[in-house]
Amino acid sequence: MTMSVRSIHTFPERRAAAHDHDSAEVALAGLVGDRPKKAAVSVVGHDSPHTRANLVLDAPTAEVEALSGHVLRVGDVVLAVESTGNACAGLYAAVGHPGTVRVGDAVEVVEDAS
């Protein structure tokens, strides 16, 4: 299945509403303007309610979670994704190559991270 970015969010302040974006710069520490969290970037599927994820993909969360352990290219950005390891849905990602991500960008599996 082909996945793409459905929406992009930053959360500059704890417990505050999300800021929605058509595109965002992604640095090694995460999305520019986002507050530091457990992971540089968080990724979830479109069916995960009340999410605080940065990238929402146009696939169910179960399909997104199946990408755990892989390296993904999203726009100019390369992300190494892994399970959150807790009750949070989706994936956490480390940034391997910074760049720009846009709504509509395809998500491509680059390699298996293991």
UniProtKB/TrEMBL annotation:
It comes from the Bacteria. InterPro entries: Pyrv_Knase-like_insert_dom_sf. This is MOSC domain-containing protein.
